[in-house]
Amino acid sequence: MTQEEVRTRVHQFIRKNFLFDEKTPLTDDQSLLGSGVVDSTGILELISFLEETCRVKFEDNELVADNFDTIARIAGFITAKLSREKV
Amino acid sequence: MCGIAGIVNTGNRHEPPSRELLTGMVRAIRHRGPDEYGMYRDRRAGFVHARLSLIDLTSGQQPLANEDETLWIVFNGEIFNYLELRVDLEALGHRFRTRSDTEVIVHAYEEWGNGCFPRFNGQWALALWDSRSHRLILSRDRIGVRPLYVREHGGRVWFASEVKAIFADASVPREIDPRGLDQTFTYWTPLAPTSLFKGIEELPPGSVREYDGDGGKHETVFWRPSYPVTSPDDYPLTLDEATEALAEKLEQATRLRILRADVPVGSYLSGGLDSSITAWMGRKAKEGVFRTYSIRFQDAEYDETEFQRAMAATIDSDHQELVVTRGDIARVFPEVIRHTERPVLRTAPAPLFLLSRLVRDSGIKAVLTGEGADEMLAGYDIFREAEIRQFWSRQPGSVARPRLFERLYPYLARSPGQAKGMALEFWRQGIERAGAPGFSHDPRWRTTSQLKRFFSAELRAALESRPSDDVLRALPPEYGRWDSLARAQYLEVVTLLSGYLISSQGDRMLMAHSVEGRFPFLDSEVMEFCNGLPPLYKLAGLNEKFILKRAAKGRVPEKIIHRPKQPYRAPDAVSFVEKGAPAYVEEVLSESALRDAGLFDVGAARGLYAKCLRRAGDSANEMAFSNADNMGVVGLLSTQLLHREFILADGGAPGGDIEYKTLIDRVQFRQLQGTA
Questions:
Q1: Sheet containing B135-140, strands listed edge to edge, beginning at the edge strand earlier in sequence
Q2: What is the CATH code for B249-372+502-535?
Q3: What is the pTM of this model?
Q4: Which residues of A touch B450 (CB under 8 A)?
Q5: Cβ of A20 and B607 within 8 Å?
Q6: Cα B316–B319–B321 angle (5° rounding)?
Q7: Is the pLDDT of residue B244 over 80?
Q8: Exposure pattern of B20-43 as b/e (b: 16+ CB <10 Å)?
Q9: Which CATH superfamily, name and number, covers B2-176+204-222?
Q10: Which end of chain B is more exposed for a tag (fewer CB within 10 A), N or C?
Q11: Domains of chain A in sequence order
């Protein structure tokens, strides 16, 4: 899965599950928690989605805001993780 | 305890209020007082009253007047210190015909004018009509335990305990006020005088409003929460002395609420500290059977049975329990919303609606509850969160400081990683604003405001130029001189306590089944005492309600005193989306209903509903609804129900005959004289 694919999937998931519309602005670099798009329980929904869709398992120490706070970071983090695991 | 309503012509333009109209108004709120009805009418004013008889059962009818029948009153509530006031008034030469507290108000007003209200220790909403000077006086108790709504239009004033009585006049336009909706989706409640309905005001708690005969209007606030501006070191009592004094004041407040009734008073038991100590004191106040009532939940997550039973056993009460299911909540929810008359973001009022029915069916008309303790003595997590965030803000890079949240929420320590990292990120937001006026409530208001993403384009446009910091713009001048805990307490009292807990979850749920709530922690002397305490006596480190826990020793079982605080919650979104949910849910959240109401973005609202339906259907996700989704579903559903019940219909229940026990009609009387 390419970084671009992850980015697109996450983008769609957030629209469908948190914004529920096509209009609200959603950028790759916007803080999901900070802008209130996703709340602290909502982030758990996002994490299970990523685990299912991207077939990854996160370690506890990976589950920090730094890795999940923006769509760009999520995409970057997942692709890096996937390529590490392939090696 | 009762329902009141009336119409007054403040100019000289109108015909007298019609009897049919007044009867329609009282019929709309008959649930508040099914025992007797009364009406007073002259050429300018009409008052109606639905009575729930609790004091002076035989002669306390209303409307009631002074000796020369020039000053008339309708009154909902209790003045708990009425016997003491009566002694004072008799010494000043006033003569009484009844034993009721209502008559004391009339004489107190004659004697002291508006200065009478700060003398009352009680819970009231009332209207006085001075038929000589053509003045209408409306007043409400300090915290707003009893409701009162007002409409002014074209030289006429309508007032009533509930909005539906004003809507009983079909000439009154019924429209949602975007401002009231915006406030609800920020603070959990509209802020008086704003209500959910355009043109309908809620009289602010602790205020008096006068309309004089030629259209003039004057409003005074006689009370609002106030805290020390002096150093806590100057507080005269040691912790032990203060604990003792608190227990005495609470006992006195509870005794008044048990003994100042000519019917037996029971008590709610939630399983927590506040209702436990209240029930203990209630039990002690009077010999004989003492009845207690509890809600149990089928969902173990919310259930507190063990603690409720422990307290009932301690005081040997006649204890009744009601088991509430998700299905029950969904079934009664439309009726609940017809009574709250404002949207809610949680279903928590629904079980209390069912509980008051159990109380009424058991023959009890009044109950004590522990409401107010968390606000007066700093019981809520929001106070502790604010303290930690403030502490953290002084060292924003600190790793150790935010770990204090694990003390608050032990589950965080057990689930490292996901929950913790994200939760801390949530609380970190805005810590740089420590010391700013709304700091303590910022996380809650921010989270709640996110729900506005569901607002329709029209609603957003209507709100565009509106500032959204209503609470902060109305702060008292001394606010900035209070300590941080007091500032947080103030915000909690004027928003959630007044507008939601004692209203949507309190008076409205109780009175739906003609049961009066009595709240010792909201006794005026108890409140003043608590507000004067040094902050450390209330919140010692992170130990909430510290002084109350000490006062509870020897009265309440240790396991209740030391249990972690459990917020009262009920199953939310899941109640409406699980299999077998009632058909109205789909109806009011349908595309056409959403479009008709025009309040929410159809796609977004349908999207949220569909998501929750999906999750409910997925057994792996059982109960997995985020806070945002729970509040979203309940908020949208309750708003849509309000639209159906109050905009499409008038909010009233099916009719029925009203037979007046008291009927003073000076218009009819004159007409009869005229034709004779």
A1: B64-65, B71-79, B122-130, B135-140, B207-211, B217-221
A2: 3.40.50.620
A3: 0.94
A4: 36-37, 39
A5: yes
A6: 150
A7: yes
A8: ebbbbbbbbbbbbbbbbbbbbbbb
A9: Aminohydrolase, N-terminal nucleophile (Ntn) domain (3.60.20.10)
A10: C
A11: 3-86 (1.10.1200.10)
